[in-house]
UniProtKB/TrEMBL annotation:
GO terms for cellular component: chloroplast. It comes from the Eukaryota. Transmembrane segments: none annotated. This is Uncharacterized protein. GO terms for molecular function: dihydroorotase activity. One of its GO terms (biological process) is 'de novo' pyrimidine nucleobase biosynthetic process.
Length: 64
């Protein structure tokens, strides 16, 4: 049995700190899946003191 969903951690080097980078990373994950896979990655951001409220709002509005 395989998992259909996962929370994807943002602690890469460099960390995933923007919505744009999270969406790029999501595409990398989806490209690695076999054809027909229904796996759904739930993307997260690595929050820092420099993460703006606007970036958090932008990330929360994207349903991918």
């Amino acid at each position: 049995m395989h998992f259909g969903r996962a929370i994807v951690m943002p602690n890469l080097k460099p960390p995933v700190t923007t919505t744009a980078r999270a969406l790029e990373y999501r595409e990398e994950i989806l490209r690695a899946l076999p054809p027909g896979s229904s796996f759904m990655p739930f993307m997260t951001l690595y929050l820092t003191d420099n993460t703006s409220p606007e970036e958090i709002k932008l990330a929360s509005m994207d349903s991918r």
